[in-house]
Structure formats: structure tokens, C-alpha cells
Specification:
187 residues, extended
């Protein structure tokens, strides 16, 4: 009995409010999407003295202008040179979060190319030799007990690391890509 009452209520609702449900009504929202006229166009009626006039004025001149034309006629603001000041007022908890964000280093997951793995003296020599050759990449000496490794670069993705590996393989045949925490790039 209850489902039958629900069905009758839905049918009555549909018949009573067909104008709001119908997608084909004249006042449908979707018809405004496909307007062909520009909604920013304004008509301005002025007389020959460039003063706004009444519609019955014999010296009427009708100007049709678009808002993009009005933007072009706006005066440019003067450029001010000098120092300004900004005062930021915030809760101390937010200030603490802000200070912690700048004082702590936040490692970024990325890739480096390992060019040597072995004893400390040889690792230092490899690092010094690579620094002389320095092609804009960072070089790091990392301790992996009981050995040391020399790694190059701070690559954000595997593609950059693969590109560097191709050139480093010519000089260091045992070079390989390792995934590690990298330093944030300098801004």
C-alpha cells in the first residue's frame, strides 16, 4: 500500500510542475549558454558636445561600445619606485608553524647517480676529480658503513637521472641510479 502511495505522489508532482522539470521550456538555463550577442555591449547616447542627452534631443549621436574598448581608454597608473612595508598580524601558533617551515629542511624524494662505491681515500679522490670537472651538478660523499659512495645530482624524476647516467657512464662505467632523498633546488 505504501509504495503505491509513493508512486501516485511522484506522478502528481510531475504533472503539477512540468514547466520546471521540462528541459525544453523557454526559460531553460542551458539556452543562455549559447547566446550569440555580447553581454558587455552598452549603448550610450550623447549629443554633439559629448554630454549625455535625453532620447528626444535633436542632436543625438548613438555610440555602441564594448567593454574591451573601455579598458583600452583607461588611464595607466603611475609606476612608483621605492620601498613599501607590509604588516602581518597573526596568531603566535601560525608564526611558530611559519618559523618551523623555514628552519627545518624538508627532503624531497628523488634520484642521484652513484659514480663510486668503496673506501674513503678513493671516494675523496673521485669526488675531488669530479668537482674539478664540475658540470653544474652537485656531488656528495655519503657514508654507507663500512664503505663510502660518491653520488652526483639532485634529480626530481627518473627521466633526468637516466639522461645524466648516459653521460656519466662514459667516465664511470660502474655508475648507477639510486633513489634517495635529495636537496631542494636553489631558487
Amino acid at each position: 500500500m505504501l509504495p503505491r502511495i509513493n508512486q501516485i505522489a511522484i506522478i502528481c508532482f510531475c504533472f503539477l510542475y512540468t514547466s520546471t522539470i521540462s528541459a525544453q521550456s523557454n526559460n531553460s538555463w542551458w539556452k543562455n549558454i549559447f547566446r550569440t550577442e555580447c553581454d558587455t555591449t552598452k549603448n550610450k547616447t550623447v549629443n554633439s558636445n559629448n554630454e549625455e542627452s535625453t532620447p528626444n534631443d535633436p542632436h543625438l549621436l548613438e555610440i555602441k561600445c564594448d567593454s574591451s574598448d573601455l579598458i583600452k581608454t583607461l588611464p595607466t597608473l603611475p609606476i612608483k619606485v621605492g620601498k613599501g612595508s607590509v604588516t602581518i598580524k597573526m596568531d603566535s601558533a601560525i608564526t611558530e608553524i611559519d618559523v618551523n617551515a623555514f628552519t627545518k629542511t624538508h627532503p624531497l624524494k628523488g634520484y642521484r647517480v652513484q659514480i663510486y662505491f668503496g673506501d674513503l681515500e678513493t671516494a675523496r679522490a673521485v669526488r675531488a676529480k669530479f668537482r674539478k670537472r664540475l658540470d653544474g651538478r652537485s656531488v656528495y660523499l655519503e657514508s654507507i658503513a663500512p664503505n663510502y659512495s660518491v653520488v652526483v645530482g639532485d634529480f626530481r624524476n627518473r627521466w633526468e637521472a637516466e639522461s645524466a647516467l648516459a653521460s656519466l657512464k662514459k667516465l664511470y662505467r660502474s655508475a648507477l641510479i639510486i633513489q634517495t632523498d635529495i636537496n631542494l633546488p636553489k631558487l
